[in-house]
Design goal:
This protein is α+β, with helices and mostly antiparallel strands. It contains 3 helices and 8 strands, in the order E-E-E-E-E-E-H-E-E-H-H. The protein is globular, with a radius of gyration of 14 Å. This is Cyclic nucleotide-binding protein.
Length: 122
């Protein structure tokens, strides 16, 4: 799914956040003020004890809470050492308003995740 890559947001001069393997990035129920792009490493998304997804570099996560202003719907944990690019709500809103292609990529990511979830439910 190369079209949904967010590698453009992970350039060399971008400020990153390092999380060691096993570290919690955010917990289900917490308030959110940023989403993340994975620059390197792998992240597990869990709801309760159920793994929802294992995410690879150049993908985003944590975007739902910025879109609907609700608390985090899942817990994100570093499977490996992870280098993340945090994107603040202000940056996210700017990207969505100024870059229609970015907004479309976010929507495609959400749609793909919804389709994957629906396959597991029905």
């Amino acid at each position: 799914m190369a079209d949904a890559s967010f590698s453009l947001l992970t350039g060399n001069s971008i400020e990153t956040r390092l999380v060691r393997a096993g570290g919690v990035i955010f917990r289900e129920g917490e308030q959110a003020n940023e989403l993340f792009v994975i620059k390197s490493g792998y992240v597990r998304i869990q709801v309760g004890n159920k793994t929802m997804a294992d995410l690879a570099p150049d993908t985003i996560f944590g975007e739902m809470a910025l879109i609907d202003n609700e608390p985090r719907s899942a817990t994100a944990t570093a499977l490996t050492d992870v280098e993340l690019v945090p994107v603040s709500e202000k940056q996210f809103l700017f990207l969505v308003s100024q870059t229609p292609h970015f907004a479309l990529k976010v929507m495609r990511t959400l749609a793909q995740r919804l389709r994957t979830m629906n396959k597991g439910v029905y």
